[in-house]
C-alpha cells in the first residue's frame, strides 16, 4: 500500500482552515486541466505544484494535446506530476482513437502506460458506442494497469467548446440512462466517473441542477467527479455539496477553488459558510 504523502507545513499555521485529507485522498479530489487553452510546460508545472501541489490530485491533458509534443516532454511532464503525488490523466483522446482501427486503441493504451500515465479517460461525447463496448475498453485499460475513468453526461455533441446553439440542436439524453451506464462502469472496475458539464451547467439556461443531485443520490459522491471549469459552477457545487465534492477545473483556477474549499475566502453567498467537521480520535 502506498504511504500517505506528508503534508507540507503551511504558512500562518495558527489560522484555522478546513482540514483536508492527505494524499492519496478519497474525497475532495481536484483534477486540473493541463495544456489545451494555454501552454503548460515543466517550469510552469513546477511553480504550480510548489505552491499548490498539496491540493491537486490529478492533471488532465485535454484535447489530445500530448500527441503534439515531443515524447520526452510528455514523459517529463508526467514525471513532474508524480514528483508531487499528482496523477497524470490522458483526457478524452480515446474517443478520437476509437474512430480508427481496434489495433490503434490497443497501441494507444500501451503507449499511455509506457509514458507513465495513471488514468485513461474514456469519453463518447461525439460518438455513439454500445455500453458493452465501453465495458471492454475499461477491461483493456485495467489490463495494462492503468485506472479507467469513463466520462458520462446527458448532452450529445459535448466537448470541444461546441457552440450552445449546436448543442441545443443535438438535444440531450435521459439522465436515468447515463446513471445506469455509470453504475455498470463502476461495477466493471472504473475508478471514478467524470460527469460532463455540458447540458447540466454549461451552455444551458437554466442549469439542470437536478442531474447532479440524481447522480449523487444513486451513486454517492466518492466515485463522482464533476466538471466545473467556471467559478460560478464550482462555487455552486461547494455551496450545495460541501468542501469535499470532487471537481475538475482549469489549472488557472486551483487557487480560487482551494480558497473556497478551505473556507478562507468566497463570494457573499459563501463567505464564512464553508466548514468541515473532523472528530479527533
Your description of this structure?
The chain is built from ten helices and eight strands. By secondary structure, it is α/β, with parallel strands linked by helices. Strands 3-2-1-8-7-6-5-4 form an eight-stranded parallel sheet. Strand 6 (193-195), helix 8 (210-219) and strand 7 (224-227) form a beta-alpha-beta unit. The radius of gyration is 18 Å and the shape is globular.
Number of strands: 8
Instruction: Give start-end ranges of low-pLDDT stretches.
Output: none
Largest sheet: 8 strands, parallel
* Beta-strand share of residues: 5-15%
Spell the H/E element sequence.
Answer: EHEHEHHEHEHHEHEHEH
Q: How much helicity do the residues have? A: 25-40%
Counting DSSP H or I runs of 4 or more residues, the number of helices is 10
| Global morphology | globular
> Compute the gyration radius: what is it?
18 Å
Given the helix and strand composition, which structural class is it?
alpha/beta
Task: Write out the strand line-up for the largest beta sheet, numbering strands in chain order.
Answer: 3-2-1-8-7-6-5-4
Q: N-to-C terminal Cα separation, in Å?
A: 23 Å
Mean pLDDT comes to 91
Amino acid at each position: 500500500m502506498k504511504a500517505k504523502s506528508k503534508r507540507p507545513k503551511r504558512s500562518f499555521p495558527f489560522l484555522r482552515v478546513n482540514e483536508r485529507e492527505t494524499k492519496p485522498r478519497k474525497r475532495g479530489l481536484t483534477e486540473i486541466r493541463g495544456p489545451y487553452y494555454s501552454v503548460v510546460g515543466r517550469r510552469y508545472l513546477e511553480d504550480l505544484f510548489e505552491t499548490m501541489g498539496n491540493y491537486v490530485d490529478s492533471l488532465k491533458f485535454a484535447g489530445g494535446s500530448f500527441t503534439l509534443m515531443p515524447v520526452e516532454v510528455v514523459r517529463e511532464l508526467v514525471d513532474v506530476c508524480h514528483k508531487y503525488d499528482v496523477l497524470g490523466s490522458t483526457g478524452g483522446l480515446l474517443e478520437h482513437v476509437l474512430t480508427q482501427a481496434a489495433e490503434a486503441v490497443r497501441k494507444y493504451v500501451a503507449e499511455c502506460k509506457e509514458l507513465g500515465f495513471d488514468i485513461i479517460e474514456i469519453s463518447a461525447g461525439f460518438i455513439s458506442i454500445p455500453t458493452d463496448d465501453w465495458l471492454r475498453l475499461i477491461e483493456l485499460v485495467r489490463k495494462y494497469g492503468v485506472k479507467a475513468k469513463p466520462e458520462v453526461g446527458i448532452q450529445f455533441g459535448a466537448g470541444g467548446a461546441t457552440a450552445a446553439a449546436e448543442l441545443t440542436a443535438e438535444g440531450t439524453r435521459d439522465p436515468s440512462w447515463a446513471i445506469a451506464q455509470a453504475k455498470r462502469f463502476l461495477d466493471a472496475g472504473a475508478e471514478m466517473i467524470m460527469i460532463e458539464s455540458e447540458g447540466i451547467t454549461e451552455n444551458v439556461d437554466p442549469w439542470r441542477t437536478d442531474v447532479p443531485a440524481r447522480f449523487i443520490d444513486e451513486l454517492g459522491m466518492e466515485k463522482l467527479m464533476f466538471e466545473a471549469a467556471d467559478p460560478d459552477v464550482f462555487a455552486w457545487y461547494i455551496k450545495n455539496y460541501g468542501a469535499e465534492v470532487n471537481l475538475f477545473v482549469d489549472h488557472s483556477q486551483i487557487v480560487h477553488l482551494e480558497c473556497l474549499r478551505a473556507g478562507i475566502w468566497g463570494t457573499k453567498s459563501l463567505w464564512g459558510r464553508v466548514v468541515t467537521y473532523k472528530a479527533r480520535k
